[in-house]
Amino acid sequence: MKSLLAYTAGTFFPRMYTFVALFVFSRLLSVHDFGLYVLVITVGEFCDFTATAWLKTGFLRFYHGGIIKPEEGPKSLTPLFQFFTKGSMAGVALAWPISWVLVRQDWLVFGAMTSLYVLGNGAAQVSLNTLRGEGRPLPFMLIEMTRPLCTLAAGIAAIKLFQPSFLAAGFAAFSCHALIGIFAFARIWWKRRLGEPYPLSVRQLFEYAWPMMFSLVLVAAMNASDRYQLQWWLGPQAVAIYAIAYSIGRQPIDILGNALNMGGFTSLMESYDLAGPAAASKLMGRQVALMLSLTLPAVVGLSLLAPHIIHTLFDHRYWDKTPALVAPIATLALFAGLKSYGFDQGFYMVRRTGLLAIALLPSAIIGIGASAILINLFGLVGAAYGMMLGYAVSLVVSAVLVRRLLPGSLAWREIAKIVVASAIMGLAVRYAPLERLPEAVGLAAGVALGGVIYAASFLGADVLGLRTALADRVRLRTARGVTP
Fold it and tell me: Fewer CB atoms < 10 Å away: N or C end of the chain?
C-alpha cells in the first residue's frame, strides 16, 4: 500500500503542478509570452517522448523480464545510461528544427529552452525508471515532487527579480528543470557505475520495445499537433488560450482515467490469464462502463461550468474565447480515455500491441488534417473539433479491432443508465440560476448541485449494481450487529 500511494502521488503531482503553473504564469506573463512558454513544454515533451519512450519501455521490461536482477547485487548500469544519454541527445537534435519551423524570429532562444527541457526530462526519466524497476517508491516520489516545485519557484523568482518575460521565466524555470534532472541522473549513475556490467544492448532494447514504437510516436504527434498548428496558423496568443482550455478540459479526465487504469489493468491481465478470454472480455466491457460513469459526468460538468471556472481562476484576458473550447477538448479527452484505458487494454491482453499503431494511424491523419482545415475556417475552436474527430475515429477503430480479438458485448444497459444520469445532472446545472451568484460561489454551487444530482440518479438507477451492493453490505453489517 505504501508503494502504491508513493507511485500514485509521484504520478499525479506533476499533473497538478502543470495546472498550478498555468494558473501562475498566465497571470504573470503577457498572453504572447505565456503562449511561447507553453509551447516550449509541448515541443519538449514531444521530442523527449519521441526519442526515448521506446527506451523507457524496454528498460522497464528488462526489470520485469528478469534481465536486470537487483537482488543479485550491484552491477553496472553504465551501458544502459549511455543509451538514454544518446536518446536525449537525439531529442535535443530534433528540438532545433521544430523550433526553427514554429518560432522563426526567436528560434535560437526557443530552441535553447526546449533543449534544456528535453535534457532535464530525459535525465530525470532515467532515474525514475531505475527507481521503479528496483522497487524504490519513496525516492521516486521525492524526485517527482521536487522537480515541479523548484521549477515553478525558479520561474516566479526570475519574473519578480528581473522582468515578466518569456526570456526570464523560461531560462530560469527550464534551467532549474534541467539541473534537477541531471543531478538525479548523476547521483543514481554514480552508485551504479562500478561492477560487472549487465549484458545489455540496443538490440535487446529494440526487441523489447519495437511493437510500441510507432504507436508511441503517433500518440506524441496527436497530443502536440493541435498546438503546433495553432502556433503555425494563429501565433502564440492562440496557443496560450488553447492551453488554458486544455488544462481545464483534459487534465481532470486524464487523471480519472489514470486512476482507474492503475487498478483495472492488473485485474484485466489476471482475468485473461486465469479465467480466459470470455471472462476478460466481460470484465473489459464493465471497466469501459465504469470509466464512462466517472468521466462522462465530468465532461458534462466541465462544459457547463467552464465560464465560472475560467472567470474564477484566470484573468480577463482569457475570458472571451476560452470557455467555448472546453467542451470539445473535454469530449476528445473522453474519447482518448475510453480508447487508451478501455479498449486498448485488449491489445495488451492478447499480446497484439502492434495493432495499437493500426488503430492510431487513420485517426492521426484525420485529426491532424481536419484541424488544419477547421482552424482556417473557424479559427481557434477548429483545432479542438478537428482533434475531437480524430480521437472519435481512433476510439471506433480500437473498439472494432479489440472486439474481433475478444468477442463480447459492452454493458449497454449500464451505459444507457450512465448517459441518462449525466443528462439529468446536466439539465439541473444548466437551468440553475448560477449566474446570479458571484463567480466562485456559483462554481462551488454548480459542482455541489451536479454531484448530488448525479449521485442520486446513479444510485436510483442502480448503475453497475452499486445500490444493491451497498444495501447488501448494510444488511450484512446489521445482521452481524444483532447476532448474539
Answer: C
The yes-or-no verdict on residue 68 having pLDDT over 60 is: no
**DSSP string across 365-402:** HHHHHHHHHHHHHHTHHHHHHHHHHHHHHHHHHHHHHH
What pLDDT sits at residue 375? 96
Q: Is 197 helix (H, G, I), strand (E, B) or coil?
A: strand
Place of cell 479491432: 401
SS3 content of the chain, % helix, strand, coil (to 5): 85, 0, 15
Distance CA 484, CA 481 (A): 8
Mean pLDDT of the chain: 86
Longest CA span, the chain: 82
* Dihedral pair phi/psi, residue 321, rounded to 5°: -100, -20
Residue 62 is predicted with a pLDDT of 59
Coil, helix or strand at residue 433: coil
Question: Among candidates 98, 447, 146, 482, which has minimal Cα distance to 301?
Answer: 447
What does 56-73 look like in DSSP terms, one character per residue?
HHHHHHHHHTTSS-GGG-
Residues β-bridged to residue 373:
none
To which residue does cell 480508447 refer? 339
In whole angstroms, give the CA distance from residue 323 to residue 244.
9
Residue 159, number of CB atoms within 10 A of its CB? 20
Using a 10 angstrom Cβ sphere, with 0-12 exposed, 13-18 middle and 19 or more buried, the burial of residue 107 is: middle
Q: List 76's β-bridge partners, or say none.
A: 197
* pLDDT in the model for residue 484: 47
Q: What whole-number distance in Å separates Cα of residue 17 and Cα of residue 323?
A: 22
Distant-in-sequence, close-in-space partners of 16: CB < 8 Å, separation ≥ 6: none
- Grid cell locating 54: 521506446
**Cα 77 off chain centre by:** 29
Residue whose entry in the numeric block shows the C-alpha cell 462544459: 303
Comparing CA positions, the residue from 62, 42, 159, 170 lying closest to residue 109 is 170
Nearest CA among 463, 445, 458, 426 for reference residue 299: 426
Q: Can you tell me the distance from the alpha carbon of 74 to that of 196, in angstroms, rounded to the nearest whole number?
A: 8
CA 234 remoteness from chain centre: 25
C-alpha distance across the termini of the chain, in Å: 35
Q: Please, what is the Cα angle at 225 between 220 and 227, to 5 degrees? A: 120
Paired with 197 in beta bridges are 76
